[in-house]
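Let us practice reading a record.
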Amino acid sequence: MDDRTKSIIDKVMEATDRVQQEVAARPVVSATKERAIAVRQRAQTAALSTLHLATREDVARMQASLDRIEAALNDMSKRLPDAAAKPRATRSKPTAREAKSA
């Protein structure tokens, strides 16, 4: 990029900055911006209130319930006979002849 092109780009950027500052300084623009921010905040609040988000207390209650369930399952597994040592007998599928006679 040559110096002439660079200076044109710099001039355009400076002019753009000046226009943005002048527009932002106008009371109508700043009031509109403030109203837009307020509307956005109200919309966010309304959206979050419609979501049923869990509170810390809800999470703590769920964790306590899961801990109780896990303890109960561990207790039951200790009381059950060792089912893994004895594989269950599987029934074979009936043959076509047996199925006709039934």
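A brief commentary: The two ends are 93 Å apart (CA to CA).
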